[in-house]
Design brief:
Elements lengths: L22 H9 L1 H6 L5 H9 L4 E2 L1 E2 L4 E2 L1 H12 L3 H9 L4 H14 L2 H8 L8 E5 L5 E5 H10 L2 E2 L2 E2 L6 H6 L9 H30 L21 H64 L4 H16 L7
Parallel strand pairs: 1-4
Antiparallel strand pairs: 2-3, 4-5, 6-7
InterPro entries: PRP38 (IPR005037)
Protein name: Pre-mRNA-splicing factor 38
Main location: nucleus
Length: 324
């Protein structure tokens, strides 16, 4: 009784919903410990808690064909056949990724082609990593978008043969679904347009360079042609020589003036240095005498005062005085 489908369940693809799982796998699920302990008397409300506890996806594994908890819950959903709103909430759940994977697989098994494309294609933008247990029992990492792509294009997922659905192209031709625009295609189009614009800019720059470097070979150059060469007149040559001689004289006079200024500046600097040295000698002699005078007039130093105080104390104690 526990392994039978509910009475009010609708047939899927013209057969019992549980028959979508092969008989040998279905038998292994009925005999496993997880099915007997965790899936007994499980309802659609309690299914959420069990789905939240999933840690990986997978079908069967090992030599004796053991089913994973994920596959057991898929069969349990086929058995109790929850409402479509519950399955849609499973798919739209963004917090628990294995709940989303469970709802996506159930929608692929029981939903129509329109429902599959409508609810599963938005999951292409989910790039989270999920763990999957392979046939040998080892774990591997896949992404959610890869798992959804397998549901829509592969024949078998998690050791379950998927029902056939119509091609998307046929639905687009019948105006039953809108054409899908991939985000990758949009990025590629933007890259192509930017590359074309850069290529056009490079072409324009190269054309400008060619125009600037263009030379008319039939036209003689201005510097080499005798037609455009100008012979200097005698008056112009004389004026040019006079201007050169004037410039030379001005430069020489400027150099002489600079030398005289340097000599005067050096002479003043030497006089200042001599005056400073004389003042410093006088100051040193004057203050040296004052220093000796102050030394003679100074009283006892701090060390002498400390020694006197220490001697007074030692005298009171009957000890020998300290020598200064």
């Amino acid at each position: 009784m526990a392994n039978r489908t509910v009475k009010d369940a609708h047939s899927i693809k013209g057969t019992n919903p549980q028959y979508l799982v092969e008989k040998i796998i279905r038998t292994r699920i009925y005999e496993c410990k997880y099915w007997k302990e965790e899936c007994f008397a499980l309802t659609a409300e309690l299914m959420v808690d069990k789905a939240m506890d999933l840690k990986f996806v997978g079908g069967v594994y090992g030599g004796n064909i053991k089913p994973t908890p994920f596959l057991c819950l898929v069969l349990k959903m086929l058995q109790i056949q929850p409402e479509k709103d519950i399955v849609v909430e499973f798919i739209r759940n963004e917090t628990f990724k294995y709940v989303r994977a469970l709802g996506a697989l159930y929608m692929r098994l029981t939903g129509t082609a329109l429902d599959c494309y409508k609810y599963l294609e938005p999951l292409y933008y989910d790039y989270r990593k999920i763990k999957r247990q392979n046939r040998s029992g080892d774990f591997e990492l896949v992404h959610m978008d890869e798992f959804i792509d397998e549901l829509l294009h592969e024949e078998r997922v998690c050791d379950i043969i998927l029902p056939r659905i119509q091609k998307r192209l046929i639905l687009e031709e019948n105006n039953q679904i809108e054409a899908r625009v991939s985000a990758v295609e949009e990025d590629l189009e933007e890259m192509e347009t930017s590359d074309e614009e850069e290529a056009m800019e490079d072409k324009d720059q190269s054309a400008d360079k060619r125009k600037s470097n263009y030379k008319d070979l039939d036209r003689p150059e201005r510097g080499t042609s005798p037609k455009y060469r100008r012979s200097p007149s005698p008056a112009r040559e004389r004026n040019r020589k006079r201007s050169r001689s004037r410039d030379r004289e001005k430069r020489e006079q400027r150099h002489r003036d600079d030398d005289e200024r340097r000599k005067k500046r050096k002479h003043r600097h030497d006089h200042k240095e001599k005056d400073k040295s004389r003042d410093s000698d006088r100051h040193r002699r004057h203050h040296g005498n004052d220093r000796h005078h102050h030394k003679r007039n100074l009283g006892p130093s701090k060390d002498e005062i400390n020694i006197e105080e220490a001697n007074e104390l030692r005298a009171k104690l009957g000890l020998a005085p300290l020598k200064p």
